Amino acid sequence: MNLVIIIFGSALLVFIGGFFGMLYRGIDRKLVAHMQARVGPPIVQPFRDVRKLLMKENIIPDGAISWLFNAAPFLALVSTGSLLLFIPLFGQPALLGTYGDMILVLYLLIIPSLAFVLGGFASSSPYATVGAQREMIIMMSYEAPLAVVALGIAWRISHVTAANPFLMSTIAEYPIWSLLGPVGVIGALLMLFTLIVVTVGEAAKVPFDIAEAETEIAGGLLVEYSGRNLSLFYLSDVIKAFAMSSLVVALFIPYNLSPLLGITSTVGGGIIDGLFFLVKVFVVMFFSISLIRAGMARFKISQASTVYVLAMTMVALVGMLLVWADFVIRM
Amino acid sequence: MIQEETKKATYTIPVGPIHPALKEPVQLMLEIEGERVVDTDVRVGQVHRSIEWLGMNRNNPVQSLYVAERICGICNICHPFCLAIAVEQAANITVPDRAEYIRVIAAEMERIHSHLLWAGVAAHEIGFDTVFYRTWQVREEIMDLIEYVFGNRVTKAVLQFGGVRRDITAEQIPRIRKSLDYYKSVFKHLRRVFLEDKTVRMRTRNVGVLSTEDALKLLAVGPSGRASGVPKDVRQDQPYSAYADLNVKAITPDIITGTVVGDVYDRIIVRLLEVKQAVEIIEECIERMPEGPIMSEPKMPRLLKLLTDAAGEGVGRVEAPRGEDIHYVRLEAGQSTLATWKVRAPTYVNLVAVPTILRGMQIADVPITFASLDPCMSCTNRVLVTDRVTGRKSVMGYEELHRLSVEKTKELQR
Question: How many domains would you assign to chain A?
Fold first, then answer.
C-alpha cells in the first residue's frame, strides 16, 4: 500500500476515533446522569474538557522521572491510535487489515495500559504507585478471558475456510452466528458476555475503575497529571473505549445493512453501513459501559481479579466448550 | 561484612487532610504493606474553631445556644438540645410537655436526614454513585419537611431554654404524615438496595470489623457500637425529654441477620432500621403530643434574668445520630454567660476505634470503613496548640493534658 495513504489514513483515523470516542463519552455521561436522576453535562462536554486541558499548565512533580512522565501519555495515545488501524470501522475493512490480525490487536490492547502504569510509577506519588500496581494486576487478569474468546472464534472459523482465521476480514466474511447450531449459539453468547465484561475493564469504568478509584486513591494513576499530558491520557482513554467496542462489533456483529437493503452503490452503501456501525457501537457501549457503571459498586482489586481470572475465564471456557460440542454434534 | 537484617518494607500513605474520601478535614496516616493496612495514626485538629470559647464569650447563654447549633451542620438539633438540657438542669427550669415532644420530633427528623446523608456518602465511597444520588434524592423529602415545620433546612434555631420557639400546628400534621408515609413506602427499596445488592454486600461484609469486646473496650457509641452488638442507646438507658414516654429500644443488627458481626454491613443495617424507628417515633409523638404552652418563660428579659441569677452545674446527654453527645455546663450567680461549657461529641469517642477497625484491611476498604463510623470532625476538634511565632502546630498528648488539668484544678481551688 502507498506509504502516503498509510500516514494520512492513520492520522485521519486517530482524529475520527477521537471525535467519536468523545461523542460517545458525552452520550454515556448524559445517559448515566439520567439514570442517576441528574441532569448531567451537555453531550459536547468531553470536547470542552479536552480543549480546557490543552490550555492548562502542564505540571511535572519534583520527584518524577520527567522524560518517562512526559513520554507515557504519547505512548498511550499512539498505541490506542494504532489499534484503530487493525480493527474494521464503519463497515469497511481495517486500513491495515492485511498487515496484522486479531493477535496483534490483543497485544496492542496491552500497550496503553502499560503506558498508564509507566506514567503512574514515574510520577512518584504514593497514590499513583498504588494505582499502577492495581492497573498491572487488572491488566493481567483480563488477558486470559480475552484470549480464550479470540481463540474460540478463530478455532470455529478455521474449520470452514483455509484463510487465516485470525484475520479480521475472515471473521467478517464468516459471521460466527451463521456457523453455529443452538448449542453453539449459547456458547457464543457466553463468549460475547465475557467480552463485554472485559470491555468494562479495558475502559476502566465502575466496577473496574480500581486503578483510578477516586474515593480511595484520589485518581490513582492520573493523580499527578495535568494539562496537555492529562488531555492525551483522556483522549487515549476515549479512543480505547471506542476501539474496544468496535472490536466487539467486529467479532460478534460483523453484519452490514447495505446488502440487506439492496443498495449497491459504493457511496450510498458506505454511508448506510457507517451509520449502522455507529449504532452497533452505541449498543455495545450502552450495555458494556453505561448500564454496568450505573448499576454497580466498585470492586476491590482482589475481587476484580477473581472475577476475571476465575469467573470470566470459566464462562469463556464453557462458551468455547459449547462451540466445540456444537461442532462435534453437527459433524 | 555485616549482613543487614531484611524486613518487609512498609510505606506510608497519607489520607487527608484533603482527600476525596473525606468529607471533613482529618488526617489518617496509613502504614501500608502491599495493599494491606498495618497501622493507622489519626490526626485531628484541622477544623479547630475554639467553639467552646466562643460559646462562653457570648453576651448571654441564649446566644451560646445558637453557637451550639453551629458546632456541626448536621447535628444542629442534638447539640443545642444537649446544651438546653444541661442549662435547664443547672438553672432548674422545667420544660412544658408539648415542647418536649416537639424537641423529640425535631431530633428524630434530624436522625432521618443524617442517616440518609450517611447512606449516600457510604455508597459514594464504594463507587456506587447511582445509589448515592438516589439516596440523597430520598433525603430531600425530609429536608423539605424540616423546612416546612421549622422554617429552615439546617440551623433551625428551634430550641430555647425552657421550651421551643416554634409550635407544630394542627394544619401542619397532614403534611408531616404525608412525608412519613413516603418514607415508609421507600423503606423497602432502600432495604433492597443496601442490604440485598450483591456488590454492596461484597464491599461491606466482613469489612472494618469491630468485635463486641473491642466495642466495649473502646467505648464505641451510637450506631457504631450498636452494630457491634452493644445495645447502648441513651434514649433507652436514660430516657430524657419525651423519650421517657416512648419506650425506645436500642437497635442491633441481629434483628435482621440473627448474628452480630460488627462490620460495615451491620452498621448499614442499624442505620437503616433507625430511620424506620425514627419515622415510628415521630408518628407516635404526633399522636400523643399534649396541648399546652411551648415555653416555660416566653419573655426574654425574664429568662435572661433567671439564667443570670442561676448557679449550678448541669450535664446534658442526648443520643445524637452518631451516638451519645454530652454537654457539661456550669452557671455562676451574677454572671450572665456560661461559666464553663464542655462538649463531648460522639465522634470523639468513636475515633479511638479507627486503628482497630482499619487493621488488616485493604486500601480499598479504608474510605468505607472510616466513613462507616460516620465521623464528624467539626464536632470533635478541641485541643490544638499553635505557636504563632514559629508557626508550629501540635496536638497535646495525655501527659501534658493531665499536667495542665491538675494545674487548672489547683488554680480554681484557690
Answer: 1
Average pLDDT, integer, range A263-286: 81
On chain B, the residues whose CB falls within 8 A of the CB of A300 are 202-203, 362, 364-365
The per-residue pLDDT for B1 is: 46
Residues B370 and B302 in one domain: no
Q: Does B123 touch chain A if contact means CB atoms closer than 8 Å?
A: yes
Residue B2 placed within a domain: no
Q: What is the pLDDT of residues B384-399, one digit of tens each?
A: 555 666 666 666 666 7
Cβ pair A303:B202 closer than 8 A: yes
Whether residue B269 is contained in a domain is answered as yes
User: How many domains does the structure of chain B reveal?
Assistant: 2
Name the residue with higher pLDDT: A257 or B90.
Answer: B90
Give me the mean pLDDT over the A290-304 stretch.
80
- From the CA of B185, how many Å to the nearest CA of chain A? 19
The secondary structure of A7-47, three-state, reads HHHHHHHHHHHHHHHHHHHHHHHHHHHHHCCCCCCCCCHHH
Q: Which of A36, A218, A299 sits opposite B19 (nearest CB)?
A: A218
Identify the domain containing residue B298 by its residue range: 51-342
Q: How far is A133 from chain B (nearest CA, A)?
A: 9
Q: Is B212 found in the same domain as B91?
A: yes
pLDDT(A27) > 70: yes
Q: Which residues of B touch A299 (CB under 8 A)?
A: 199, 202-203
Interface touch A297/B11, C-beta < 8 Å = no
Contacts of A220 in chain B (CB under 8 A): none
- How much is the mean pLDDT over chain A? 82
Answer yes or no: do A216 and B366 touch at CB < 8 A. yes
Residues B100 and B122 in one domain: yes
Q: Lowest mean pLDDT: which of A173-182, A197-206, B61-70, B120-129?
A: A173-182
> Is B79 within a domain?
yes
Q: For residue A324, give Cα distances in angstroms to A155, A183, A330.
A: 9, 9, 10
Give percent of chain B with pLDDT exceeding 70.
92
Alpha-carbon distances of A37 from A40, A295, B132, B197, rounded to whole Å = 9, 13, 10, 19
CA–CA gap between residue B156 and residue B145 (Å, rounded): 12
CA atoms within 13 A on the CB side of B180: 20
Cell of B199: 456488590
Residues B126 and B238 in one domain: yes
Residue B42 main-chain phi, psi, to 5 deg: -95, 125
Which residue range(s) make up the domain with A180?
3-330
A215/B125 Cβ within 8 A: yes
Does the distance separating the beta carbons of A216 and B363 come in below 8 Å? yes
Give yes or no: residues B326 and B370 share one domain: no
Q: How far is B362 from chain A (nearest CA, A)?
A: 8
Answer yes or no: do B299 and B378 share one domain.
no
Q: Is B130 on the interface with A (CB under 8 A)?
A: yes
| Within a domain: B3 | no
Last residue of a domain, one of B342, B359, B383: B342
What pLDDT is stored for residue B378 in this prediction? Answer: 60
Among chain B residues, CA nearest to A128: B13
Are A217 and B125 an interchain contact pair (Cβ–Cβ within 8 Å)? no
pLDDT at A171 over 80: no
Average pLDDT estimate for A101-130: 85
- For the residues B140-160, what does the mean pLDDT come to? 89
For residue B350, pLDDT over 50 is answered with: yes
Query: Pick from B263, B262, B271: which is nearest to B323 by CA?
Result: B271
Give the model's pLDDT for residue B396: 63
| Residue among B276, B286, B108 nearest B185 (CA) | B276
Arithmetic mean of pLDDT over chain B: 84
Q: Is the pLDDT of residue B380 over 60?
A: no
* Cell, residue B236: 433507652
* Residue B258 binned pLDDT confidence (cut-offs 50, 70, 90): confident
**Residue where a domain stops, chosen among B291, B323, B342:** B342
* Chain A residues lying within 8 Å of B27, measured CB to CB: none
- Chain B residues within an 8 Å CB radius of A206: 127-129
Is the same domain home to B246 and B357? no
Q: Which residues of chain A are within 8 Å of residue B200 when distances are taken between CB atoms? A: 297
- Burial bucket for residue B215 (CB in 10 Å: 0-12, 13-18, 19+): buried
Question: Mean pLDDT throughout A70-82?
Answer: 87
B337 to A235, A321, B155, B187: CA distances (angstroms): 62, 82, 22, 45
Residues B186 and B80 in one domain: yes
